[in-house]
């Protein structure tokens, strides 16, 4: 698959078949993620891959999120609330949940660099998901349940949970979301 095709066909998917994902496939996703660029090749990421009982523990924590997001979703209408509640109830049945952590650094510039590198690794992973015929959604670790998630993902002391990805074989076809167009300034 061409990179541009993968970029254009990637969507955030929030409903999955229960079919498991082979370990070799997950390994290829992680491998692709690690080829992302990072400041001075620091490779700040660590991947916490949860399947089986570990995935269940993460899903139980994420289910607590529904109550908290309610007030944010209220403004978006009942359809969105229902969709979100269904997703957060069991992470759309995704068989694999991956957390990405990075070692915390005090210098804000270095921390920003590390966050950018983690974002690049995340996107590499998401594009490889498309290549592998899988589907995924990236999520933030909601701050109100962050401590519990850190525990469920077994994030090391001194590290920060940066991102979550749920993935598996998708069973929904969401519409493509329009992209903003007024986003470039060409300087000559
Ligand atoms: C950093 C980040 C955090 C996100 N957090 C959530 C989230 O908490 N819940 C969710 O359902 N989707 C989340 N998403 C997915 C976005 O909603 C999605 O990327 C956006 O609506 C564009 O849709 P698309 O990915 O299908 O193009 C997140 C995406 C990113 C990159």
Question: How is this structure best summarized?
Answer:
With 188 residues, this protein is of the alpha+beta class. It has seven helices and four strands, in the order ααβαααβαβαβ.
Q: Which terms would index this structure?
A:
four-stranded antiparallel beta sheet, NADH Oxidase, binds flavin mononucleotide, alpha+beta, single chain, 4 strands
Tell me what the structure shows:
The protein has helices at 3-9, 23-33, 52-63, 65-73, 78-90, 108-131, 146-152, and strands at 45-50, 96-103, 135-139, 159-168. The protein has 188 residues and is α+β, with helices and mostly antiparallel strands. Strands 1-2-4-3 form a 4-stranded antiparallel β-sheet, sandwiched between helices. 30% of the residues are buried. Helix content is 44%, strand content 15%. It has one domain (3-168): NADH Oxidase. The structure holds flavin mononucleotide. Residues 11-12, 14, 137-140, 177 line the site of flavin mononucleotide.
């Amino acid at each position: 698959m061409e990179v541009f095709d993968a970029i254009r066909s990637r969507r955030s998917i929030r409903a999955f078949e229960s079919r498991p994902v082979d370990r070799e496939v997950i390994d290829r996703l992680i491998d692709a993620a690690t080829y992302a660029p990072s400041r001075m090749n620091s490779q700040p990421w660590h991947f916490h891959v949860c399947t089986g009982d570990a995935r269940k523990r993460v899903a139980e924590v994420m289910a607590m999120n529904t109550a908290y997001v309610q007030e944010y979703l209220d403004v978006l209408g009942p359809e969105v609330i229902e969709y979100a509640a269904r997703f957060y109830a069991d992470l759309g049945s995704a068989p694999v949940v991956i957390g990405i952590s990075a070692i915390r650094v005090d210098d804000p510039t270095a921390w920003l660099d590390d966050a950018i590198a983690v974002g690049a690794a995340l996107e590499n992973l998401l594009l490889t998901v498309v290549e592998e015929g899988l589907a995924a959604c990236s999520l933030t670790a909601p701050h109100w349940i962050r401590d519990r998630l850190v525990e469920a993902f077994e994030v090391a002391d001194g590290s920060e949970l940066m991102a979550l990805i749920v993935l598996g074989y998708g069973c929904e076809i969401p519409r493509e979301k329009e992209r903003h167009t007024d986003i470039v300034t060409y300087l000559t």
